[in-house]
Amino acid sequence: MEELAGRPIKKKVVAVVGGGLVGALNACFFAKRGFDVEVFESREDIRKAKIVKGRSINLALSHRGRQALKRVGMEDKIVSQGIPMHARMIHSPSGKQSPIPYGKKGQYILSVDRANLNKELLTEAETYPNTKLNFDHKLQDWSAETGLMTFVRADGSNDQIKADLIVGCDGAFSAIRKQFLRRSRFNYSQTYIPHGYMELTMPPIDGEFAMKPNYLHIWPRNTFMMIALPNLDKTFTCTLFMPFDEFEKITTGDEVIEFFQKYFSDTIPLIGVDALKRDYFRLPAQAMVSVKCSPYHINDKCVLMGDAAHAVVPFYGQGMNAGFEDCIVFDEILEQLNEDFSAVLPEYTRVRVPDDHAIADLAMYNYIEMRAHVNSKWFLFRKHVDNVLHCIMPKTIIPLYTMVTFTRTRYHEAVKRWHWQDKVINRGLLFSATGAVLGGSYLLIKNPPDINKLIIPAEKMWNRLLALRTS
């Protein structure tokens, strides 16, 4: 306890529900500010578990997430345990590989292991003397008026605590959020996409990575795709994203091989025929959900963060980064408003909701880009134009991916700027093309050529332009 004029002052108690990535990081932020922090996790301690349950899609750590880790002194340690990915590596059906850089030279995202990151954050949270981690504690009930919380332990006994602030970081199917749903004027939506995902492992070959490690490998096939991220143990985690009805069509090992031979033939010798047949049927395809809600708070007593507030599909690599940025934004508002929860919580909702909704929409859009647009010559041409303009006018034209991944530009502002830039660049390309046509027409009028020699080349050029725009 602190003292004021000789009288002890009780520290405020912050109860963080959920000991996952955002919950563990939040514990560090609140403990650093001097609050008494209690973390409650329904599962056992992941650091002691023999089998780690839950999702395992590899994580892509980028600028927003790194900034959050930096605030609690964890950035260098986590970055040293990640693998830099400087570009997407596109695998065509023929096996041809083509890199598409993420940004300027030196810019990269990091492939990090979810379970290891969670363990590191829990261990860091535990180093604060004012933090207590409570595992095997399932939330049974809580009061938004009093802050009284009741948990059920693994042995069936109850545990109660009274908190000044309750922070819901308990994931897409949040138990804390259920209380919000009972209240008036709480907006909530969830959307399951028709695609599921399945994970496969590509083992090392002769102790080395089976493919180039410093890339996020993508096999885009228009209506579905596969990606592969490198791991520290020299394996790749391959994730197949496909409509559920397509997964269900494949019922035998031979059909698996036939499917991979048709669409991902270059991966068969790398994953292995037997491993493919075994792993494909090991677990059913998993669902992906996008959650939006508002407001994020109830009075001065409770606030939602991470997937509990805004679960997103994994296609922009921003789910964890957005959740980690929640921690920074809340901490910044705590600082601005002198830790007055009655002012901080509504301000957090006002600031954060439009950004989280924007990244949820962008993640949906990026799935189309990853599985279809990267095959388009027009997309690659526009990507090149954007990058050239960014080099010439770095403060005026900034590619959307750069704003989202390599800056802390607010998500909704990045989307607005992207739409404006898109309009300007498309008009510029149109004016340039019009100018070229008018200039060419003027030269043709001044110096008329033999018309018969022009017909065939002109037709060829027109067909090429059409192919570029529609491919």
Automatic annotation (TrEMBL):
The keyword Flavoprotein applies. HAMAP family: Kynurenine_monooxygenase. GO terms for molecular function: FAD binding; kynurenine 3-monooxygenase activity. InterPro entries: FAD-bd (IPR002938), FAD/NAD-bd_sf (IPR036188), Kynurenine_monooxygenase (IPR027545). It is a multi-pass membrane protein. Residues 14-329 form the FAD-binding domain. It comes from the Eukaryota. One of its GO terms (cellular component) is mitochondrial outer membrane. Belongs to the aromatic-ring hydroxylase family. KMO subfamily. It is found in: Mitochondrion outer membrane. It comes from Seriola lalandi dorsalis. Catalyzes the hydroxylation of L-kynurenine (L-Kyn) to form 3-hydroxy-L-kynurenine (L-3OHKyn). Required for synthesis of quinolinic acid, a neurotoxic NMDA receptor antagonist and potential endogenous inhibitor of NMDA receptor signaling in axonal targeting, synaptogenesis and apoptosis during brain development. Quinolinic acid may also affect NMDA receptor signaling in pancreatic beta cells, osteoblasts, myocardial cells, and the gastrointestinal tract. Its EC number is 1.14.13.9. The gene is KMO. Its cofactor is FAD. Keywords: FAD, Flavoprotein, Membrane, Mitochondrion, Mitochondrion outer membrane, Monooxygenase, NADP, Oxidoreductase, Pyridine nucleotide biosynthesis, Transmembrane, Transmembrane helix. It is an enzyme of class 1 (oxidoreductase). Pathway: Cofactor biosynthesis; NAD(+) biosynthesis; quinolinate from L-kynurenine: step 1/3. This is Kynurenine 3-monooxygenase. Gene3D superfamilies: FAD/NAD(P)-binding domain. One of its GO terms (biological process) is kynurenine metabolic process.
